[in-house]
Amino acid sequence: MKPQTWWKAKPVSGPDAFGRDDLEGQASQITVLLGLGRQLALMREYGAAKGKGLAAGAMAAQSGDQPVPPPPPAQTEAEIASKLKEDFATYSSNEIDIEIPQLKFETGVVGQLQAFGDEATRAIARDAASAEGSDTKRKKQHDLAGRVFARQEPDTAAELVLAELASDHEAVRIAAAAAAVLMDAHSPEVERILSAGATSGDPAIEPLARQALAMANPSHDLTKEWEAEGPGAPPGPPRGTSLLIHGTFARRQPWWQPGGDYHTYFGHEVRNDLYGGTDRYDWTGAYSHPARDLAARELVAWLEARRGPSSHPPILVAHSHGGTAAFLATHYGLEIDLLVLLSVPAHPARWLPDFSRVRRIVSFRVRNDWVILADGGRQRFSDPRIEEHILPMSFDHSATHYPDVWREHRLANRL
Which of 42, 269, 305, 316 lies at a 20 to 30 A Cα distance from 16? Predict the structure, then answer.
């Protein structure tokens, strides 16, 4: 896949996005598909259709860290419907400026999702792929999208997600596969699409595909490869008071390591005390709370081993769930002078720092962040002790560590 400048694309609202082939249309389709998948996941997680054959909490069990509690057993259908609406609003309302249909609560939705299992997923994708040419296929997908926007029916939303597994556009297919994982429609075809996306070379699409693949199959060979320790970094300045922390499945990616584009930019143009030793800190990047908790404890130990008793607290720059690890580290006693958060998912009910141990927190993020939408986090922090800066761009979870974005928007001046 040729990398695209998704962060420059302008959002398109409504079903018309599904009739467009340009970058803006594709980006908006991806956002809607992930939003639909998240709502369908919430319906499953809350056991909205009890007794329909799908195990309650399956989504929470497979990812290990979704912050959605099970409903009290005495809830009525009306109460569950109200709670679903409230919860999805918390995920989507902050910095999502693309219309995502608010699906109606239906007691049969879990049964519908169960029907979209391995064979159904392959069959729907095969039917869509055999349509009479791209124009006919696109019209069918556009018509489905129109029905979802007009009627907000969960079963139609699920059908749209699976139909888009056969989209002409690889990025849309990957988003559809991620949404299928959210609604528990796993299949070899879904894993194949995600595996291809996870190694696509597109910095906006790879994190989404990798996260979804780990949710679908945590023991996949690719996830083990991403968690493995990479080669040693080239020599650099031996000591420093600032440090970069990578996020999920980025352990072997070069951008944050000495010699990488963001490390080089930050060390030359923002902080000349950036750590550049061959023993730079890293963590597995696994998509789980235990991995982040271990990363936090290892971060504390790593810093203690390299700093004297009178050393000034460090400056940490953390991307994605690397920020979660930094939060957790403060609860293990780490003092931080400045914590810079890059596209960090907001899960305030589960992860916040010990604010007494951090002098200042600054957060940079884009709107309509695909990875955060699929992750189930909120798109921004509401706590006033975290200074939020929403950049005038969308979609790309990785954009906050692009040197050109930092230069163009003078982000260093906000630290």
Answer: 42
DSSP, res 233: P
Per-residue confidence (pLDDT) for residue 239, from 0 to 100? 46
Cα 119 to Cα 75: distance, rounded to the nearest angstrom: 34
In DSSP terms, 367 is beta-bridged to 394
Q: What is the largest CA-CA distance in the chain?
A: 71
- Per the model's pLDDT, the better-predicted residue between 97 and 127 turns out to be 97
Rounded-to-integer distance, Cα 311 and Cα 309, Å: 6
Q: Which helix (H) or strand (E) holds 43?
A: helix 23-45
Mean pLDDT of 368-378: 90
Instruction: Give the pLDDT confidence of 52-107 residue by residue, as tens digits.
Output: 433 333 333 334 444 444 444 445 666 666 766 666 666 555 567 788 888 887 65
Cα(71)–Cα(83) distance, integer angstroms: 9
Q: What is the DSSP letter of 346?
A: B
Give, as one character, the DSSP assignment of residue 333: T
Structure tokens of 75?
Answer: 């809830």
Short-list 264, 276, 271, 270, CA closest to 237:
276
> Judging by DSSP bridges, how do beta strands 242-245 and 315-319 pair with one another?
parallel
Q: How many CA atoms lie within 13 A of 50 on its CB side?
A: 10
